[in-house]
Every structure is written in structure tokens, then in C-alpha cells.
Write a structure and sequence with these properties.
Blueprint: H1 3-8, E1 22-27, H2 36-56, H3 66-70, H4 74-80, E2 85-94, E3 97-106, E4 115-121, H5 136-144, E5 148-152, H6 171-183, E6 187-197, H7 199-209, E7 216-220, H8 234-240, E8 253-258, H9 266-279, E9 284-289, H10 300-313
Parallel strand pairs: 4-5, 4-6, 6-7, 7-8, 8-9
Antiparallel strand pairs: 1-2, 2-3, 3-5
Helix pairs in contact: 6-7
Length: 316
Amino acid sequence: MRKSLLVCLAIFGCVGAHAAELTSREPCTTSEAPDLQRYLARQRATVESEQKAARAQRLPVRSIDDLARVAPTNDDYLARNRPGIRCERITYRVDGLAIKGFLWYPGDVRAEAKLPLIVFNRGGTGEDSKLRPNTQFGFERFVRAGYVVIGSQYRGNDGSEGKDELGGADVADVLELVKIGRTLPNVDADNVYALGYSRGAMMTLSAVRDGARFNAVALVGLPADLRSRGDRPAADLAHRSAITFVDRLDVPMLLLQGSGDPLVSTAENTLPFASALQRQTKTYELVVYDGDTHGIVFNAEDKDRRILEWFRRHAR
């Protein structure tokens, strides 16, 4: 290992010393310079595609012109990309497989500091929506709020070995990542949270079902009931559907949903799941954003504010 890399990673430990579960960790590299107009064009194209599907389902949608009202200024956009957040590309082993992921943390963290950890579970399948060094601007809002963020690409993606099972054996990739995160020298093992988007929200609750311990979780666009999909055996779909194992979800849950989400039905998925949580007196909070998208684009700032407040509320 290069001397410069040892210096870079000294605070968060080196491979073979404090982070024995990690087989490699390297500083992130990216060739794409920050470009606000390119970012806004990609965002608009994604929202327009999603809204087309939402209208076909007669769902409410926000005006596409509202994107301009919530778009960052160029100064704000560049500020979110400013130095101060360290990113590492990591590799770890699960079930004999090499799994890729990322780690983000404050660049000025003190050696003696203990920071809360967010385990981020990405959405999408295959290479779609895979993590990148600048995902959510390097999780800027969370890292600058004093959190370490760690996330997996899951098996079969981005050079990870194995097969992506969309909530099958790959749940072990999340379970192992939680264990790894707790061992990092600057992580406060008593304050560990999870944040999942879409498929990642499903992975989060599947990990809770299988023994992962979090102070609290935040779930964006959760597909809580997959049983009507028909693209997999019924038993597999039920196993992945959080609505079938509500009794095993002993963790405070923040549910964030856009009513214009064409991928996860608020009426047929989110509300029945919230009702099931209510019947079993689980700790949860549900926020539905009128006309917003699967990823809650129009209310992104409020979404992140609520997530951070939820985690602070359940700190030890």
C-alpha cells in the first residue's frame, strides 16, 4: 500500500489493522467536473419520464416547471461539491464473494471523534442506480451534519462477484456492511442508522428482519408489498415484502413517499403497510408529498431535513 494512501486513511484505520473485514479501500476518483446545467438536464429528463408513467396511472404530478423553483443556484451547487468530504471505494467479503461499496466521511474529523453511522442501501437493479463517488453530492448534507455514510453495490454489480438476487442472498451484503461499519475507529457503534431508497428500502427492512440493529431507519419509496408482481415465485415475493413480516420490524421507521410515484403505489402499497404498522403499534412516521416523484425530487430539502431530525430523535 502506498505511503500517501496510509496517510489519507490513517484516521479511519488501515486494511489489516482496524478494519480487518475490509479487503481493500482506495480514495475515490472521478473524471466528471461539477456542471449544474448537466445535472439539471439529467434531473429533468428523469422526472419527465416518471411523470409520463404517473399520468398513465392517473396519479397527481407536480408541474415540471416547479423544478426550477427547487433547483440550486450555481453557487449552491458548487458549494455542495466543495472539498471537505472524503470518499473511499471499498471491497469486502461476504459468503466468499468480493463485494464493492463506498465510504464517505468528514475530511476534518478528529482522531478521537466518534461519529454516528448511516448505512445507505441503494435502489435499482443491476448497474441501474449504482453508487458513484458523487451520489447525493457525496452525501453532503449527511456528512456535513457529522455522519459517516457507508453503502454497498450488492453482489453482481459494479465489479462485485456473485449474482444480484434483488433481496435474496444479497441481503447478507447489507448485514456484513453493518458489522464492518461498527468496527471503524471513528464510528460510534451505539448510533447506527439506515437509509434506503426503493429497492434499498426493501433491503433495509429485510436486513432488520434478519437481525441488523439500527437506532432508526428512513425509507424512501418503499415497495412494501411485492406479492402482486408475478415476476418471481410467490414465496420469494412474499419473503421480500415487508408487509408480511411487520411483527419482526422492531425499529423506528420514517416512511417518505411521493403521491405521484408510478413505481410504488401510495394507495395500494404505502398506506396498507402504514396501517399494518399501526395495528401492531410499531414506531413509525409517514410523510406523503403531494404529486412528488419516486425519489421525492420536488421536496428533496425537506426530505433530508426530516431524515436527519428522525435520526437525531433516536440517538443514544
